[in-house]
Structures are given as C-alpha cells and as structure tokens.
Amino acid sequence: MSHSVPDWLGKALHNPGPGHAGLVAAQLADERMVGRGGFKLSSAAFSDGGELDPSFTADEEDSVAPPLEWTAPPPGTHEVVLVVEDPDVPGDKPFCHWLVWGMPGQKGQILEGEVPLRVGKNSFGNSEWLLPDPPSGADPHDYVFQLFALDLPLTLMPGASREDLVEAMKGHVTAVSLLTGTYAREDGGDYDWDAEGQD
Questions:
Q1: Which residue from 50, 52, 88, 139 has the fewest beta carbons nearer than 10 Å?
Q2: Residue 194: per-residue pLDDT
Q3: What structural domains does the chain harbor?
Q4: What does the pLDDT look like over 104-115, one tens digit per residue?
Q5: pLDDT value of residue 4
Q6: In the chain, what's the furthest Cα-to-Cα distance?
Q7: pLDDT higher than 60, residue 191
Q8: Range 2-6 contact pairs with CB under 8 angstroms and sequence separation of 24 or more
C-alpha cells in the first residue's frame, strides 16, 4: 500500500496521516469527484472533524451508529454507497467499521441506530456497525465516513467483503463526499489489533 496521501484527499481531510492513503476513497475517487454537484454528507450528531459522542462507541452500552444525511448526488446516480474506516490503526490498511450499499441514488439519510438492508463485513467479519474502540492513551482516531455515488446499481449480496465492494465499485464512482468523526478514550480498549479479522 502506498503511504502517500493524494493531494486532493489531504485537502479534504482535517489531519491526514500515512494510513489515510489506504482509504477506499484514495483508491476509487479523485479531485473532480469531491463534492461534485453539491454532493455533501453530514450528521446531526457531529461536525466534520468533530468528536463522536460515546453513545456511538464501545464506551457505552446500547451504542448505535450515528445518524447521517446527504444531499442529492449528481444526475445519473443509480446507487449510493457508504464506507466507514479508521486509518489510524497499526497495519497495512484501515480498520473497516461499516459497509453499506443498495441505497437509492438520491437525497437520503440513515437514522440513528438504523440497520440498513445491505451491509458488508467489517474488519471483525460481522455485518454491522463496528463500534469505535481505540486503545487507551492513544491520540484521537479518525473515523472517515466516505459516501460514493455510482453510475450503476450493485448486485452484491449482504455480507460481502470490503474487497468485494471495492472491486464492484471500480470505474463506477462519479462523486464522493467525506465526513470525519474523531474519538479518543481514557479507559482501555478491547481490540486486539494484531488479531484483526480480515475482510
């Protein structure tokens, strides 16, 4: 994996580091696609570059995924895909927290705690929102929410891997919007980074 973050991606992020070069957006998007046609992802729960509330992390019981909403993608969009990754973990690729596809190519939203119909495997091999659980004492981790507009509908079944999704999206991304939440914790996390379950 290249450890050089593309210039366009660095400008779209708040605190890019080497790990951000492994984001799906770095592989599938380019400068022309960022916010194309006014395409914008946002959340009522946190601002871009802002801190995630513990209610969306492993630090609270009954935690859920945060609410998200987006403006209309460019004309001709058939599907919208969401990928959430933590690029600040050890290893050669970001930690995958959420893969969601099959959403209509129009203005939309995911409600707080909503379980979408088509969800792929996170880095622990589960088809669900993987709660942020950074190690104790570490600098804040970035959780990069990447929303892609596609020019065709995907035929992937629920439970597909990150690699499957990336392969299916190649050459079909027409726009992308990025939203970063951060999180740091005082108590120790439970993740065993060396035993990360690969997609």
A1: 139
A2: 46
A3: 7-187 (3.90.280.10)
A4: 999 999 999 999
A5: 87
A6: 47
A7: no
A8: 6/30, 6/31
